[in-house]
């Protein structure tokens, strides 16, 4: 058995993190400042606004106002550096530097930056471009490149026919696994599916209590063993219960574990071997940026993942994790956690990501 001290305790406060919708406190009417998107930080203004202002300025034949370089967005810097109709490879390296630094600061993985750089180079280097079209060309190339980072694979758990359909959730401590299980349970219930939960995090008594709290609130069966029991046995019993009672979905909670802990990864492998889940979902915090990227890489290499849920996407001001994880793993993001209520679960869409990045179509 894995020593209990190797399991990092998740914050106890998470037990009450989710409230039943009818009990959720009403949101305050006070106006919140709009979240500054990733690319609005890079460009200083929304790309579309920059393009429109340049168009108006061009029509009026107004000379560009001189300003300090550090106060300008990337479009302005690029415009100053280009004097010809084509951009050389050397000029492109200089131009891309600003964008590269901005992406690194906003948690975009190096592999993704290299992909975007390759795409932009193909569109810009030695390609005839009117000087007043440089910003528009770069914006279009960025949108196309980022949209191409996401896998076209589509997993719709609501359309699955196998019964029972078994989903295993895993990730590091405190990333929102149990919260996400509760949200998926509510989603399935709203679509008239029956659910049973498996408390396979047996290393912390509080973890079982936490899942019991959600099971009681959502009025679903929780299969659990005593503290310290074999997690794989709990998962197995939950699946057998589902088969015997005509349950549609089995959702397996697992202990939070550091992606670098080989012993705990082996324990997760045993759960997966015994339960043979139809879907393995990694749950990570969108706001953890490159840490989330590294975690998903390690888990994917160790046990393989089929998809991802990114929690706390509603407070992610950088956006790098969402841009990076799908490209690096080749697996889809299924949902974004966008709040603390059971219904605060947003299905993945490119439009959602592009809007958060300030690159709306």
The appropriate CATH architecture of the largest domain is 3-Layer(aba) Sandwich
Alpha-beta content class: alpha/beta
Return Rg in Å. Answer: 24 Å
Instruction: Assign a percent range to the helix content.
Output: 40-55%
For this structure, what is the CATH homologous superfamily of the largest domain? Answer: P-loop containing nucleotide triphosphate hydrolases
Number of helices: 13
Main β-sheet, in a few words?
A: 8 strands, mixed
Content of β-strand? 5-15%
Strand order of the largest sheet: 3-2-4-1-5-6-7-8
Number of strands: 8
Number of domains: 2
Could you tell me how far the N terminus lies from the C terminus, measured between alpha carbons in angstroms?
A: 53 Å
Residue windows where pLDDT falls under 50 for at least 5 positions: 1-32, 56-72
Shape: elongated
Overall mean pLDDT stands at: 80
CATH-derived topology of the largest domain: Rossmann fold
SSE arrangement, N to C: HHHHHHEHEHEHEHEHEHEEH
CATH class of the largest domain: Alpha Beta
Give the SSE layout.
Blueprint lengths: L37 H6 L3 H13 L14 H8 L7 H17 L4 H15 L9 H14 L17 E6 L6 H14 L4 E6 L4 H14 L2 E3 L7 H15 L3 E6 L7 H14 L3 E7 L4 H13 L4 E5 L8 H10 L3 E5 L7 E3 L2 H7 L5
């Amino acid at each position: 058995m894995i020593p209990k001290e190797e399991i990092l305790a998740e914050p106890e406060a998470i037990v009450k993190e989710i409230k039943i919708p009818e009990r959720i406190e009403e949101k305050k009417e006070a106006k919140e400042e709009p979240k500054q998107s990733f690319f609005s930080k890079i460009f200083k203004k929304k790309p579309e606004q920059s393009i429109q202002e340049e168009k108006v300025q061009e029509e009026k034949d107004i000379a560009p106002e001189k300003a300090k370089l550090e106060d300008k967005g990337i479009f302005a810097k690029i415009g100053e550096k280009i004097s010809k109709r084509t951009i050389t490879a050397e000029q492109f390296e200089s131009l891309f530097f600003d964008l590269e630094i901005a992406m690194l600061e906003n948690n975009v993985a190096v592999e993704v930056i290299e992909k975007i750089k390759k795409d932009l180079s193909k569109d810009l280097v030695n390609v005839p471009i009117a000087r007043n079209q440089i910003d528009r060309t770069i914006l279009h190339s960025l949108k196309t490149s980022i949209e191409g980072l996401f896998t076209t694979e589509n997993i719709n758990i609501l359309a699955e026919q196998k019964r029972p359909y078994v989903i295993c959730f895993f990730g590091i401590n405190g990333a929102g696994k149990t919260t996400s299980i509760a949200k998926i349970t509510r989603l399935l219930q709203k679509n008239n599916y029956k659910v049973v939960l498996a408390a396979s995090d047996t290393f912390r008594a509080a973890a079982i209590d936490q899942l019991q709290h959600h099971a009681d609130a959502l009025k679903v069966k929780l299969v659990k063993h005593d503290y310290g029991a074999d997690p794989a046995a709990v998962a197995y019993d939950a699946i057998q219960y589902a088969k015997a009672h005509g349950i549609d979905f089995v959702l397996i909670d697992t202990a939070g574990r550091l992606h670098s802990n080989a012993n705990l990864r082996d324990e997760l492998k045993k759960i997966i071997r015994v339960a043979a889940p139809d879907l393995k979902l990694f749950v990570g915090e969108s706001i953890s940026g490159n840490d989330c990227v590294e975690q998903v890489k390690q888990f994917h290499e160790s046990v393989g993942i089929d998809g991802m849920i990114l929690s706390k996407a509603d407070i992610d001001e950088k956006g790098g994790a969402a841009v990076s994880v799908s490209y690096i793993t080749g697996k889809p993001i299924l949902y974004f956690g966008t709040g603390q209520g059971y219904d605060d679960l947003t299905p993945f869409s490119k439009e959602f990501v592009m809007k958060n990045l300030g690159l709306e179509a």
